[in-house]
Amino acid sequence: MKKKVSRKTWILSGLSVLSLAAAALTGCANSGQAEVSQDVPTVTIWGAGGQEVREALQTIADAHNADPKYNTKAKVEVQFVVSGTSEQSLEDRLVATYQAGETNTDFDLIALDDSAIAKIVSRTKEDFFDDIDTSKIPNYDNLVFKDNVVGTNFIPYRGTCVYLAYDSEVVSEPPKTADELYQWIEEHPGRFAYCDPSTGNSGFSFVANTIYNQLPQEAALSNDPKWETEHTEEWDNAFSLLEKLHPYLYQTAGKVQYPIKNQGVLDLLATKQIDMTPAFANMVLSQKNMETLPDNIKLTQLEEPFLGGLAGFMIPSIGSDKEACLSVIDYYLSYEAQAIDWNTMFASPVVDPSKLEGLEHEDWLAETDMSSMRYFSIGTIQTDISKRWTEEIGSLAR
């Protein structure tokens, strides 16, 4: 495994002291890392997504590197591709490395949402990611999401869910079902928006729910193309409904607008240009904590929940020290690391939340209970949904 100079430590202001590891992070992170022997293997975590995900991964990595129980087994470094930039995507980097025939790289651990994995496998090979021996991960026993649709080569480390975010000063009784939401949209023209689903999964969740509410429950957990090719009537009905709703959505300059990215709709909500939108819970909570979203923005979930998913670790076959990777995964599943993840980006824990200590805004954790998560993992069908939406619905706004 390659030895590299440590990246600059990321420490979020106000991070609670959770344990000896976190105390070392906030008080003497640099000296803690300096004590790590140069002979300790370096495990590079590669991730992709928003800046808040990057900061959370790095903050936990710093705490790991200051923990004497773990820093004698591995040193963690984080490489991250921030979404929305001109950088080559993590998927493309992995595929290019694979196609070049490289077998000993610093792609040691990959931290991705489960929905992104099928795209990588489709461009490499079925066994591109190694099976993970969970018997060598003691904190695996902490995990409450052991069953996942990816399989034995995927270990979840955080959860994510889309909720209905609304302005409680305007909406006293938010919709409870999808049908009630559709009715509310028509009764309140221009006060609802969802982002272009090809640019943000909060918008994708609205579109996907419109389709999958009409399909059997198991369809949301399958990438089998039959759910698309053998259920054309349900798909057609869903897109007809989206077309029907189109004129009632947020408008500017007399035209319906689909904001770009997940942040786009939250900006409209913060400035009272809309009253309601699907949004990722952690984004809403983080921005309320930073006071860029006001306290009157609340979250609720429908009886047919919006999509939820898991982000987790996978070990590519082209990486290096597998044993060191297992030790790093073990730390990220510790109660200490899970608490840091919540305090850094309000990521839904994948362990029993009652075991976590030193949490900020513990009441918000109860509001976003992962037990109600509707798990979506549909592989490349997601691409088909976004493409059809662009052709049939997005084109209406041009």
What are the secondary-structure elements, in order, as H or E? HEHEHEHEHHHHEEHEHEEHHHEH
Output the number of helix runs: 14
Strand content: 5-15%
Question: In which range does the helix fraction lie?
Answer: 25-40%
What is the name of the CATH class of the largest domain?
A: Alpha Beta
Mean pLDDT, rounded to whole units? 87
Q: Structural class, please?
A: alpha/beta
CATH topology of the largest domain, by name, is D-Maltodextrin-Binding Protein, domain 2
Radius of gyration: 21 Å
Total number of distinct structural domains: 2
Descriptors for this entry?
about 400 residues; alpha/beta; D-Maltodextrin-Binding Protein, domain 2; 8-stranded mixed sheet; two-stranded antiparallel ribbon; 14 helices; about 15% strand; globular; disordered N terminus
Q: How would you characterize this protein structure?
A:
It is globular, with a radius of gyration of 21 Å. It folds into 2 domains: 200 residues, Periplasmic binding protein-like II (D-Maltodextrin-Binding Protein, domain 2); 171 residues, D-Maltodextrin-Binding Protein, domain 2 (3-Layer(aba) Sandwich). Strand 1, helix 2 and strand 2 form a beta-alpha-beta unit. By secondary structure, the protein is of the alpha/beta class. Helix 2 runs antiparallel to helix 12 and helix 6 crosses helix 8. The longest helix has 15 residues.
